Amino acid sequence: MFHRILIANRGEIALRVIRACRELGIETVAVYSEADRDALHVQLATRAVCIGPARSAESYLNQTAVLTAAVESGCEAVHPGYGFLSENAEFADLCQKCGLTFIGPSGDVIRAMGDKASARAMMKAAGVPVVPGSDGCVADVEEALRWAEDIGYPVMLKATAGGGGRGMRRVFSSQELPEAFAAAQAEAEACFGDGSLYVEKLILHPRHIEFQIMADSRGNVVHLGERDCSIQRKHQKLMEESPSCALTPELRETMGQAAVAAARCCGYLGAGTVEFVLDGEGRFYFIEMNTRIQVEHPVTEMVTGVDLVREQIRVAAGLPLSFTQEEAAVKGHAIEVRVNAEDPANGFRPCPGKTAFVHFPGGCGVRVDSALYNGFTLSPYYDSMVAKIIVHAPTRLGAIRRMRRCLEELTIQGYPTSADLAYLILYHGDYLRGKYDTAFLEEHLEELLSWQSGGHEGAEE
Fold it and tell me: What does the pLDDT look like over 9-63, one tens digit per residue?
């Protein structure tokens, strides 16, 4: 087992890794920017090293600074968390060259899964269903038009190096495609340095279902059930739950086996997520694989009892998984709400500022992951998420009621948050009945905001 691990991240995920390390008896080294000098992960780590100014490019994304801190502090491994360098194949390779264990899959696997076109090809070869689309990248708009005509409109243009909803455009006709192609290509080039695009059939009103997988170096690969991430805005998830009420036991088994096959075919190691879209007829298709721990991993931890970060560290150290597929059973129901410092009533405008006062909910079946404390100032340089509220209960309705209670208790003063919007979603009839898809928020946002401003008569269970 490792003696000392550097955490190449910040905020709540850095705290999450620190806590897992402390329970394993492992020392931790935190890195921080000048803006995060007073951050909680800096205070709780065994040691902390400043690696640069506030801007991510000069600190958390500065690979040389991060690796120098790891080597000089005597670390044996690096945990990247999520975001920043977590899916950077070059960084994983450099860790290995520096004699450090990257807690995650190899650079080659990250590279293969990060390129959406090559990932599609690997999944097809492994027998995992993929959305109908082009065979790899399209050379130009003319080729995109030919593929779109063959597949049938509507289609989705996607950046092969994309993520987070960037470099994507919906296209409903051949007249729209040239302009959409130019916009998606420009955005992909600006965000990822790679403007390559491919064409996929657009699945209208899908559910977004992802399966958590875990693999060790001994050839063991298991899945830990699914998370329904369909409550989202512009491809950014706002709420997640497990299990999904859209899956039958038979469909869950089939999708779980496909997720395991996806991990096996690329030689995966560690924690990862295989993401699918599910259409209204019960057909599912692979869309991507996230080669890291997910923001929403606590949902799976609550329903399975498995500490995913602990398992990440153990398998990176060469140990076998501590559980089997049969032991990774889902029990009860869990829901996570992401609380962001943003104003939904004003276009979800980010609202960084000083935390005047914070009080988190507690009680049976409640977990809060956050790096907030009274007086902490949110920096405008980083993500707007300030907390994750996660609940577990024997039933879905019990989890909904528990989450309502938690959001009633939650107090964050100093800036607006998205918590009130999440609270109202928990009263919406479609959500209560489990009849929602990725278009839910887009279709109901105006209705929900009107409830927020003038009271509401949301559906009751």
Answer: 999 999 999 999 999 999 999 999 999 999 999 999 999 999 999 999 999 999 9
Contacts 24+ apart (CB under 8 A), 24-28: 24/310, 24/313, 25/1, 26/1, 26/2, 26/313, 27/3, 28/4
Beta bridge partners of 212: 273
Q: Residue 281 is encoded by which pair of tokens?
A: 């007829």
Domains of the chain, CATH where assigned: 4-103 (3.40.50.20), 132-201 (3.30.1490.20), 207-454 (3.30.470.20)
- Cross-strand pairs, 71: none
What residues are annotated to the active site?
Answer: 292
Cut 0.90: pTM above it: yes
For residues 119 and 128, the answer to whether their CB atoms sit within 8 Å is: no
Burial 244-274 (b: 16+ CB within 10 A, else e): bebbeeebbeebbebbbbbbeebebbbbbbb
